[in-house]
Amino acid sequence: MRNYKERIAYKFFGWKSIPSLVITTPISLFFEKITENSQKVKKSWFKTVKIGNFGVIKIPPGKASIDVFEVLSWYDVKVIHLGFCCGISKKLNLGDLVFIKSSIIDGKEEISVFNEIKLDKIKTVRGFTVNSVLETYENKIKLMKMKIDVSDMETGILYKKIPKSLSINVVSDCLLYTSDAA
To answer: Alpha-carbon distance 135 to 144, whole Å?
Structure first.
């Protein structure tokens, strides 16, 4: 009989074993594009696809992703997270790809072990994990003073649970494009 962690992982993902590399995304379009040629989409608690030692999980947005990251943290796994973020820095434009090297959550900066990596055509930034998209707009001056480049809802949770991860995001909105930007 499998232990409780294996049973939980199976209930969540429908996998008998956890692959060594997992892509997570709360974005339906990203999940569909990554898995469009796969006939193996499982619908357990989360939509998943596993091909050999590689898996893709459609996660819930924000704090609801904590369960997925907690279960994955029980295994020797690397995670590439794909998401959207809000640009705060003047160096960012809508549509930019960014690697969030670290993210502040609950007052602590969580850092990817890959924070020194340089990715071609992807800007490296510092993030702030929020509970709500509106939180960024409510705290924009504070975030700008802290020299935060972006905010998102998952990266801090991910790095807290699984430091061997990368969070790659598309800047989908930008504080500088709002009428009352500081």
So the answer is: 13
Tell me how far apart the alpha carbons of residues 97 and 120 are, in angstroms, rounded to a whole number.
Answer: 10
Token reading at 42: 């499982």
What integer is the mean pLDDT of 127-134?
A: 91
Q: Nearest CA to 60 among 165, 153, 159?
A: 153
Tokens 């790095």 found at: 159
Given pLDDT bands bounded at 50, 70 and 90, which one contains residue 178?
A: low
Q: pLDDT of 146-170, one tens digit each?
A: 999 999 999 999 999 999 999 999 9
DSSP secondary structure string, 21-55?
Answer: EEEEES-HHHHHHHHTT-S--EESSSEEEEETTEE
pTM: 0.90
CA angle 138–141–144, rounded 5-degree value? 120
The 3-state DSSP class for residue 16 equals: coil
Q: Which residues of 109-136 are buried (b: 16+ CB within 10 A; e: fewer)?
A: ebebebeeeeeeeebebbbbbbeebebb
Residue 18, token pair as written in the block: 């956890």
User: pLDDT digit string (tens) for 109-122?
Assistant: 999 999 898 889 99
